[in-house]
Amino acid sequence: MAGAFWVAHVTVSDEEAYMRYAALATEAIAAHGGEFLARGGKAIQKEGRAHPRNVVAKFPSLEAANACYESATYQEALSHARGASERDLVLIEALD
């Protein structure tokens, strides 16, 4: 089974609320076998609209990545991110 990635591009407008999101999201991601490959750090924007924060997480499968997103813990996390950030998130199946 192929692995999968979450790729998120984020602009944070309320740091305190977003940190509550990050704590719960980290818990949800780990519970679904996910691990962070990039979380912030330097980036060079070549195309499209830049966001100051970019995150990549690896999961064992696309199903695990989606189950994480749909989980109660992650949905609770999202309640803190809404209104505290502008986000783009895509779940991508990895090549075998």
Helix and strand arrangement:
Blueprint: E1 4-12, H1 15-31, E2 35-39, E3 53-59, H2 62-70, H3 72-81, E4 85-93
Antiparallel strand pairs: 1-3, 1-4, 2-3
Helix pairs in contact: 1-3
What does this entry look like structurally?
This protein is 38% helix and 31% strand. It is of the alpha+beta class and 96 residues long.
The span between the termini is: 7 Å
Shape: globular
Query: Helical amount among residues, as a percent range?
Result: 25-40%
The H/E string reads EHEEHHE
The main sheet orders its strands as 2-3-1-4
Strand content: 25-35%
SSE class: alpha+beta
- Please give the radius of gyration in angstroms: 13 Å
What's the count of strands?
4
Largest sheet: 4 strands, antiparallel
Q: Could you tell me the mean pLDDT?
A: 96
The residue ranges in which pLDDT falls below 50 over 5 or more consecutive positions are none
In DSSP terms (H or I, runs of 4 or more residues), the helix count works out at 3
